[in-house]
User: What shape does this take?
Amino acid sequence: MESSSQTVISAQNGDRVLVIMAKAPRPGAVKTRLVPSLPLEAVTAFYRCLLDDTLALAQSLGVEVAIMCPDSDVKELAQLAGRGATVVAQKGTGLAAGLTSVFAHFARDSQRRIIAFNSDSPHLPPSVLEEAFETLAAHDVVVGPTYDGGYYLVGAKGSHPTLFTGDGMGTSSALERLLSGARALKLSVGFVERFYDVDVADDLIRLAAELHLAPTKAPRTARWLKEWEVLAAQLRTGTGEL
Assistant: This one.
């Protein structure tokens, strides 16, 4: 039988849900904007490391963890996640449909705090995610902006089907469109620290430098980047092969 303290902890965890927006790590399906900088197979392997470390980050918070993904990816991601996360198929296609599905699926009442964030965010400090949950306690919506005009994190305490639109998702106008939607719905919005996600070569270089100094933030990704740097150097000198 659970002790009273365990019951309280379980109830608290059930009130906080962290959802990773992910795809199965298949060639040509993930991180396609990195392909000009890395071979396709390398991009896929890199994304697998990002996803593994992001899942570990989410699990470290002691909250309910889930993965939202396209229906075709559920089986593969369930195998990757094991018992560490519930994998849920989104309704519809695209990121807007995925985010709408997150809050439609997990919102039970106005007290449940739900946060969705990118699967390429293993370098995100756990304190930012904790702050997002705290911010959501006092606001209808919480947002984590990126430097390029998008956002890496969004949370809410209920389902708002019109909050996300297909137009502009993944572009420099994504954040402004989200905030415009929140204003139209008269939702209060709180913010957490601006951060970067890993979309293009400059992001990759920035991440590699960060993890070189602090590899324990994302150990699988740090190890992959270190191995890739060695291989890339060998390729430049003609002593290595893919």
Q: What stands out?
A: Residues 230 and 240 are 9 Å apart (CA to CA).
